[in-house]
Amino acid sequence: MSITHNQIHHQRKLMPCVVYTLIPLALLHYYTSISPVSYIQTVHKRLQSTATSDSTSPVQGQVAKVKNQPLCDYSDGRWVQTKVEPLYNGTSCETIKWAQNCMVNGRPDTGYLYWQWQPKDNQCPAPVFDASVFLGIIKNKHIAFIGDSLARNQLESLICLLSTTSKPELVYQGGDDLKFRRWVFHEYNATVSVFWSPFLVKGIQLDESKGINHNTLYLDTPNEKWATELDMIDIVVFSNGHWFVQKAIYYGEGNQMLGCNFAQEINCTDYNIFDAFRKVLRTSLKEVTKRFYKSDKTVVVATFTLAHFEGEWKFGTCLKTEPNKEGDAEMPHLENEMRKLAIEEVARAVKDVKEMNGWLRIEALDVTKLTFLRPDGHPGPYMFPNPFANGIKEGVPNDCVHWCMPGPIDT
Ligand SMILES: *[C@@H]1O[C@H](CO)[C@@H](O)[C@H](O)[C@H]1NC(C)=O
Ligand SMILES: *[C@@H]1O[C@H](CO)[C@@H](O)[C@H](O)[C@H]1NC(C)=O
Ligand SMILES: *[C@@H]1O[C@H](CO)[C@@H](O)[C@H](O)[C@H]1NC(C)=O
């Protein structure tokens, strides 16, 4: 057994006794990758295996890995039925955006709540979420979700899950529509925050109400809203992509116009959204790597999540009440490409850090497939309270992009 360079660095800080507990772990084949997801697994299993003999104090994110063993791959798998109850509901958590509170908005079916992700790799089952273990991992740390409304959806899910164990204090909120917020779990000195930055880079959002019909993106300039706060953040989660399907004009180095993606309407060079998204990820990852390649920070890039409109965007519907099985549908090209290029940019950044002899951790949180299989997990018409009250039957707007809370997003 050996431990990678990356982990040796992290273990420097640990007590020797903790290192000993890693050995039986490794012997039991609990090898893991270094993603936050597998942290949970490692720590979870460690707590289980020591539950009867050891102290109960949560441990921090130490990780063991057996050389030449494959890493856990949670990205591929299927949804299987479970009887496990969600950890929270529509009224027990205060941090659910109303448009995603399907229970309170009257969604009648509940079957979508009882599915568990089962990775293909049966060496690596996905553990049931344990809030106190997760809080132990982010103890004395700050985890920030940076991105669009899906990042917010994911952040709120995490806050609801963690709140079942420890009550957080909302210590900051700014921007319209709660776009910037920060909570502290005082018992753990753990900070969780969200930053609105749908492009990750500098830009101007389209806004019909102001007569702005396209986005403007400066592909080489990180958005200062998060870039200026990086010093304070230990775990950065980038989560965006959906805004890239809208009309946009792109600028590159020196504010030179690169082109746009609606050239048929205005006179400009066609510039495709995949190149734009790739550049945005590269700029953002570069910003972190160049400043923090020799740091204990972790950077996570969440991959593209699936929307499930049948028919038109917004007035289309997503009426399914069960997950898709493999083969029920085919992964659409756009989503597939967006995922692939995120994975590639993560790999590239990992290589860059290695070449600089750094140890900054960079991981993809590959949720594209997992979300692809869950057409049943969106609010649909229940983005509004009681949409079918007063005999209304048709023409109700649907949200088939975001996710009900509780729901598959808690995975
Ligand atoms: C929601 O959870 C709370 C606290 O666990 C419980 O008291 C309440 O009955 C639940 N509500 C529903 C609708 O299940
Ligand atoms: C509390 O957490 C912050 C990170 O959010 C960290 O900088 C600080 O050192 C922690 N305090 C203690 C006493 O460990
Ligand atoms: C589009 O812009 C180019 C370069 O500025 C110019 O040469 C061309 O005439 C323009 N075409 C139209 C249809 O306006």
From TrEMBL:
GO annotation, cellular component aspect: Golgi membrane
Alphabetized PANTHER family for the sequence: PROTEIN TRICHOME BIREFRINGENCE-LIKE 9-RELATED, XYLOGLUCAN O-ACETYLTRANSFERASE 1
Entry superkingdom: Eukaryota
Keywords, alphabetical: Golgi apparatus, Membrane, Signal-anchor, Transferase, Transmembrane, Transmembrane helix
UniProt domain Trichome birefringence-like N-terminal: residue ranges: 72-121
Entry's Gene Ontology molecular function annotations: xylan O-acetyltransferase activity
Domain Trichome birefringence-like C-terminal residues, every copy: 127-411
Membrane topology: Single-pass type II membrane protein
InterPro entries documented for this protein: TBL, TBL_C, TBL_N
Compartments where located: Golgi apparatus membrane
Keyword Transmembrane helix applies: yes
UniProt similarity note: Belongs to the PC-esterase family. TBL subfamily.
Pfam families for the chain: PC-Esterase, PMR5N
Name of protein: Protein trichome birefringence
